[in-house]
Amino acid sequence: MIGRTSLRILALSLTLHGATFFAAPLFAADEPAKTADLPPPKVLMSHPPAILSGATTRVVLRGTRLDEIDKAQVTTPGVEVVKIIKTEKNPPPQEYSVERAGDTRVEVELKLTDEAPQQFPLTVVDKQGKSATWDVSVLRKEAAGGEIEPNDGFKQAQLLKLGQTVLGEIHEAKNVDVYQIQLQAGRRTIVEIRVAPSRSLFDACATLHDADGGLLAFFDDARPADSEAVCRWELPAGDGVRYLAIYDANDRGGPTHGYLLRLEVRP
């Protein structure tokens, strides 16, 4: 893994049968399956990993039987469902199972006030019934920052500000996101990467580099692939500029590989 990591950083770059005169009950076994026998819709993951308060925004839910959703429901004050934008069949990303990433998706438009809570439950409904609730995370606009692309190399590194949460995404296979960090002598620096509760497919790894690009440390989330993880890594003590390169452990990427990144400094 480390050898491959070093190379990556260097590059950074279903008809009824029978006559109509027979009574219908005699042919019950030949009828198509009734919709009432089908399972309800099920949400397995969502992206992005969080949405912003005080804005009209969209969230995409992936799962099974989401291609016939006709309603989304939220009962939380400060959050309003605007409309269902789109539903469709959509195979899981390559190398992922339907059980993990689903084969359908629904895109929902939501309107949030500034007072929207940090997390709220969302359900989606079709003719079969209602899904279980799905938790959606919310970031305060003033505390959130978007990922600035391109940030694929040291010269394009995005400054990671203390206390700010960056809403990032490994947007394609073999993509690396690089962030510049300012370490402070005598203080502990903690990097947090969160994918819960969205169940992002992102399997986080990172390398830490000095101001000249030299490799200082390697970090792996060391978690089961289906867990809802929060990774916290303490960086080696030091002073001055450091670069944090974040990538997927399996070199995968796309909209399903979102993450929340935060930097904390402690005494």
Summarize, please.
The protein is mainly beta.
Topology:
Layout lengths: L1 H10 L30 E6 L3 E2 L3 E9 L6 E3 L5 E11 L8 H4 L2 E9 L6 E8 L2 E2 L3 E6 L4 E3 L11 E2 L5 E5 L7 E7 L4 E7 L9 E6 L5 E6 L9 E5 L5 E9 L9 E9 L1
Parallel strand pairs: 2-9, 10-12, 11-13
Antiparallel strand pairs: 1-3, 3-6, 4-7, 5-6, 7-8, 7-9, 12-19, 13-18, 14-17, 14-19, 15-16, 15-18
Number of continuous helical runs: 2
Q: What is the average of the pLDDT values?
A: 87
Named CATH architecture of the largest domain: Sandwich
The number of distinct structural domains comes to: 2
The rough form would be described as globular
CATH fold-level topology of the largest domain: Jelly Rolls
> What is the CATH domain class of the largest domain?
Mainly Beta
The N- and C-terminal alpha carbons lie at a distance of 32 Å
What is the count of β-strands? Answer: 19
Portion of residues within helices: under 10%
Structural category is: mainly beta
**Percent range for β-strand residues:** 35-45%
| Low-confidence regions | 13-34
Largest sheet: 5 strands, mixed
How would you portray this structure in words?
With 267 residues, the protein is mostly beta strands. The protein folds into two domains: 2-9 and 144-266, Sandwich (Jelly Rolls); 38-141, Sandwich (Immunoglobulin-like), CATH 2.60.40. The protein is built from two helices and 19 strands. Strands 2, 4, 7, 8 and 9 form a five-stranded mixed beta sheet that branches. Strand 15 (204-209) and strand 16 form a beta hairpin. The chain starts with a helix and ends with a strand.
